[in-house]
TrEMBL record:
GO molecular function terms noted in the UniProt entry: lyase activity
SMART domains: DHDPS
Binding site for pyruvate: 210
Organism, scientific name: Enterobacter agglomerans
Name of the molecule in the record: Dihydrodipicolinate synthase family protein
Keyword line: Lyase, Schiff base
Length: 295
């Protein structure tokens, strides 16, 4: 495992609560972070996919960067991805001013990108971001894959390139990403973007996971890291099977963001379940399925 990376372990990509008027609810975010702070996880990611960054205005994103940091002493990373580089740089500057530990960036999306274009994009961005950064590989959303060869080449050249969230539902992709980057950097953090890949990621020499279930049951993932470090195979087996069972949450609703938020709202009564994804509200049968899953 990439223990030399200060970003190894379990990350929660936090949901972004909204109030009844549809505005960002910082009080609810504070309640959410208070629970996560005590769960044993390592890092909070704000404005990831589950954090609905694509539906937030630039001012809302700047507000979240400013107001989220005082709510937790955990490491904190801000996703500053956008289609407009000046907006990204404004968000990154705000992150550094508010003592964030790193930022995260997607590749350009909407337009297809070749590996050559991606190389030039990230090299140019690295020179401007001003601090540690993570790439976010989510080809199902961006239309391009950050290949292990590309990421290893960038990692070898760019010391501030700290790691990658590899959100590809393919264990061999995650494994190859770990193997290629390990050839050039011992401190590079390859984190899986799928909940049930934490243990396979660790077994392959990776750094950990960034996964949505950490909003609901972060203690399971923190316990898995403890069991991994102590070599407790029975506990690892139990937790892997439990997390695998809970993966059913992703097939309950029409969109996973609203479903995760609904689970948090019903289990902890700390926030509204409302999201900015239209038509995602769960019906009574779906809510009952969530209650049963987490009972």
């Amino acid at each position: 495992m990439s223990e030399k990376s200060p970003f190894a372990g379990v990350w929660c990509p936090s949901v972004t609560p909204f109030n009844a008027q549809g505005a960002v609810d910082i009080d609810a975010l504070g309640r959410h972070f208070s629970r996560l702070n005590d769960s044993g996880i390592d890092t909070l990611l704000v404005m990831g996919s589950i954090g609905e960054f694509a539906s937030l205005t630039q001012q809302e994103r700047l507000q979240l960067i400013q107001e989220a940091r005082p709510l937790s002493s955990l490491k904190m990373v801000a996703n500053v991805s956008a289609t407009c580089i000046p907006d990204m740089l404004e968000l990154a500057e705000a992150a550094w001013k508010n003592d964030f530990d790193a930022v995260m960036v997607l590749p350009p999306y909407y337009y297809g990108q070749t590996q050559n274009q991606l190389m030039h994009y990230f090299e140019t961005l690295d020179a401007q971001l001003g601090g540690k950064w993570f790439a976010y590989n989510f080809p199902a959303r961006t239309g391009c894959d950050l290949t292990p060869a590309l990421i290893a080449a960038l990692a070898a050249k760019l010391p501030n390139f700290a790691g990658i969230k590899d959100t590809v539902d393919c264990l061999s992709h995650n494994r190859m990403m770990i193997e290629e980057t390990r050839k050039v950097r011992s401190d590079f953090a390859v984190l899986s973007g799928y909940d049930e890949y934490l243990l396979p990621n660790l077994l392959a020499g990776g750094a950990g996971v960034i996964s949505g279930l950490n909003n609901i049951v972060p203690e399971y993932f923190a316990q898995m890291m403890t069991a991994w470090r102590s070599g407790n195979l029975p506990e690892l087996t139990r937790l892997q099977q439990q997390i695998g069972r809970l993966m059913a949450i992703y097939s309950i609703g029409d969109d996973f963001v609203t479903t995760i938020k609904t689970a948090v709202a019903r289990r902890y009564d700390s926030m509204s379940s409302g999201s900015r994804n239209y038509g995602g509200t769960l019906n009574a049968e779906q809510c009952a399925a969530i209650d049963k899953l987490f009972s």
